[in-house]
Amino acid sequence: MTSTQTTSETTTRLYLAMGRLTRALRRDSRQALIGHGGLSALATLIQDGPQRAGALAQTEGITAPAMTRVLNSLESLGYVGRSQDPDDGRAFLIAATAAGEEIVLRCRAERLQALGERLERLSPGNRDAVVNALAALEELTSDN
Q1: Domain topology for 22-140
Q2: At what angle do helices 53-60 and 36-48 cross, to 10 degrees?
Q3: How many angstroms separate the CA atoms of 98 and 9, rounded?
């Protein structure tokens, strides 16, 4: 990148491409019983363990009322359960159930398959370019 204009154009193109790819993968796996927000919250609970709804909302970058709606929906489907927080009897901890873990694994497998199919449609040169860009893309996700 040699100029501010080029940097701006590259940033815009990358942003749009990432958003469009994410939406395309969601469309490719239409069998999902829950939306992206619910799936993300479940994946966080599986990775990070049981936690309060407020902490989960903060991790997911949404408001507490929005998280309450997501969790109520997930609970009605049997994907999360609530238990009293041993440190504060007034609060609850939210945890993924076995059914919640199963749905995350199934949805992830569907999206990985969809991504694999999209990668296979690329020319060999473009597929190599994606592979070569992975380290830089992974670095973009770092908070450092």
Answers
A1: Arc Repressor Mutant, subunit A (1.10.10)
A2: 110
A3: 45
Question: 17 to each of 10, 11, 23, 134, how far by Cα in Å?
Answer: 10, 10, 10, 15
Residue 109: C-alpha distances to residues 81, 99, 112, 119 (Å)? 24, 15, 5, 15
Closest CA to 38 of 127, 104, 86, 102: 104
| Tens of pLDDT, residues 89-133 | 888 999 999 999 999 999 888 889 989 999 999 999 999 999 999
For residues 80 and 42, the answer to whether their CB atoms sit within 8 Å is yes
Strands (E), 14-103: 80-85, 88-96
